[in-house]
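Re: magnesium ion structure - here you go.
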Amino acid sequence: MKELNSLKMEFPSRSANEALARAAIASLAAQLDPTIDELGDIKTAVSEAVTNCIVHAYPDCIGKVWLRGRIFEGGTVEITVRDRGVGIPDVEEARRPAFTTGGEERSGMGFTIMESFMGELKVRSAVGRGTVVTMRKRLSARL
Ligand SMILES: Nc1ncnc2c1ncn2[C@@H]1O[C@H](COP(=O)(O)OP(=O)(O)O)[C@@H](O)[C@H]1O
Ligand SMILES: [Mg+2]
């Protein structure tokens, strides 16, 4: 797959930066001429991943978040969101629909949304070291 364009960003885990990340990835993905729905799905997936860094990875402090976006010939978007926060003890459990450690105000549907909206989701994590979420979406073929 030939890479057409890419971006790398680093930002503190402040909630304002969820919109920043979403806008940056949307501008990159827009270069592949996605449908409105596809672009909406990508933006939602980025928001979920970045929100997890803000809320879960660094619960009591502001930490760094690294975002990478890549677009490929043929219409594939790849997004990586990385933190050096608390990590996830059991990734399989964390990925289950409705599993949350966040209490009442969290739905536990973030990973489920990322996977279903993007098509492909990988989560690597180590307790005390951080988490890497990689998502890939293949856009529908356009004329
Ligand atoms: N970046 C992260 N760092 C640490 N824990 C995380 C991270 N992302 C997700 N988690 C854990 O996985 C759980 C499930 O995440 P998610 O599906 O997004 O649901 P929610 O955010 O609503 O809890 C979270 O409750 C949290 O325990
Ligand atoms: Mg979440």
